[in-house]
Amino acid sequence: MKETNILTEGSISKSLITLAIPIILANILQTAYQLTDAFWVGRLGNAAVAAISISFPFLFFIIALGGGLAMAGTILVAQYRGQGNRKKIDHISSQTVLVVFIISLILTAVGYYLTPYFVSLMHVAPEVAQKAISYLQISFLGTIFLFTFMVFQSLLRGVGEVKIPMYIVLGTVLLNLLLDPIFIFGYHSIPAFGVAGAALATVGTQGLAALIGTILLLRGRHQLRVYFKDLKPDLNLIKKMFKIGFPASIQQSSRALGIALITFLVASFGTVITAAYGIGVRVLSFVIIPAVGLSMATSTLVGQNIGAKKIDRAEKIAKLSTLIAFITLTLVGIIIFIFAKPIAAFFIPGEIVTIQISTLFIKIMALTFGFLGIQQVLNGVFRGSGNTLVSMGLSLISLWLLRLPIAYFLSKFTFLHEEGIWLAFAIANIVGAIISIIWFRRGKWKDKKIIDLASKFSVDQKIKQTIEEEVIEEPSN
Predict the structure, then answer these.
(1) Phi and psi dihedrals of 84, rounded to 5?
(2) Is 367 within 8 Å of 334 (Cβ atoms)?
(3) Residue 16 and residue 297: Cα distance in Å, rounded?
(4) Reduced to 3 states, what is the DSSP secondary structure of residue 477?
(5) What pTM was estimated for this model as a whole?
(6) pLDDT of residue 340 exceeding 50
(7) Taking phi first (over 0 means left), then psi (-120 to 50 degrees means alpha), and beta for anything else, what does residue 350 get?
(8) 475: three-class secondary structure by DSSP
């Protein structure tokens, strides 16, 4: 009897809610790692906040290089889940774990040893540089844990299981909330590590999450299982994963590089501006969580419905999700606009000038959050259908042809100075959304084929069907 898949049948809005809410909650909790660090580190002053601000783009860059392969696993698993092919799901899951694990080891080593070089590129004050190096190197040592849990979370999302990762993240975030002040300020025999303490707390809790995720993948109780026999490299599949995942890696890593360049541009205006920018970016990363959650849910739904050969349903999912993202983030943006000053003050109390500058940055961005939501969701549509190259191209346009050039021009060649950077975020959000809508309406994304949609049945079923047909067609004596 064929297994029922609620994500390819029934109410689209119910399917979106079923997936999106746990993903959004998990992402909120993931962001809580950064917010917790920012909250406690903010008690150490501007230099400490600036150190974490300049560290983020480099961490994001290294993570993005390997994240594309995890995304490729998600896309393939989602489409084969829609097709109902459990054997393919397990094999792809095992190969994804293998490849991402190897890449995480390489990137951990590269990130750790290049950290001093990364920080030197920013030309920040010596006290900021020293704190950033210690924070970054410890964080890079935890890359393997972060990647392991990322793969676990991505694969389960591909089959539509999103609650288990949320529960794990909840537990580790609560633990991080407890450990952060202990490692930052010290407690009894535990010395005060300062900024580095925030990284130590995060790496420890990420290690616990990775261990739990690995155990669950090996036990296989959630619609997929990693088998040791499938860990032998399948070169054809790995090649396909790279073909799908490489554009996603380029998209994310180029975005990280772009963020690094913007951070470099911001750093040229001094420590106070850098700290204000860091607070604004933290708020931005928290605010777009609903759109990111909808984007991930949309990727899974679009992928599974394309795998089930329900293209019209996939398109309806895309349109509904985009509308929800625009309305939701517009409302959130209005609220953030109204409460921008107390939000900024929460992260760095007492620093009046920094709070004023950060408040302006937050307000300028806030009213364009809805357009950012459109970009996020449509990128999810393109990824879920296997059009990772299109998703990459649109992201590159938004960042490299819009935000970066506009930010540089307005900040260096007009009277706006750092305010020109803030305006560049808003302009890129609006124009990028318009370009994404135009590409979506062309409909080319529906033509992409990354799995054999004709393979509706398993091998055993095909053999049985062939035998039955031969018996029927055999002439009687």
Answers:
(1) 85, 30
(2) yes
(3) 6
(4) coil
(5) 0.77
(6) yes
(7) left
(8) coil
pLDDT surpasses 50 at 209: yes
Cα separation, 134 vs 41, in Å, equals 14
CB 237, CB 92: distance < 8 Å: yes
Q: In this structure, are residues 176 and 114 in contact, taking their beta carbons and an 8 Å threshold?
A: no
Question: What is the DSSP annotation of 140-157?
Answer: HHTHHHHHHHHHHHHHHH
Closest CA to 391 of 151, 75, 159, 61: 75
Q: pLDDT by residue (tens digit) across 268-316?
A: 898 889 888 988 888 887 788 888 889 989 998 998 898 888 889 999 9
Residue 187: φ, ψ to 5°: -160, 115
SS3 190: strand
Q: Is the Cα torsion angle 384, 294, 167, 69 positive or negative in sign?
A: positive
Q: Mapping DSSP to helix (H, G, I), strand (E, B) and coil, where does residue 251 land? A: helix
* Residue 241 contacts residue 155 (beta carbons within 8 Å): no
Secondary structure of residue 187 in the 3-state scheme: strand
Residue 190, phi then psi, degrees to nearest 5: -85, 120
Q: Whose CA is closest to 313, among 301, 324, 326, 325?
A: 301
Q: Which of 386, 389, 385, 421 has the alpha carbon at shortest distance from 406?
A: 421
Q: Which position has the token pair 């940055």? A: 361
Distance CA 300, CA 75 (A): 7
Integer Cα distance of 210 and 207 in angstroms: 5
Higher-pLDDT residue of 432 and 455 is: 432
Contacts from 30-35 at CB under 8 Å and sequence distance 24+?
Answer: 30/169, 30/173, 31/285, 31/286, 31/289, 32/173, 32/176, 32/177, 33/173, 33/176, 33/202, 33/205, 34/282, 34/285, 35/282, 35/286
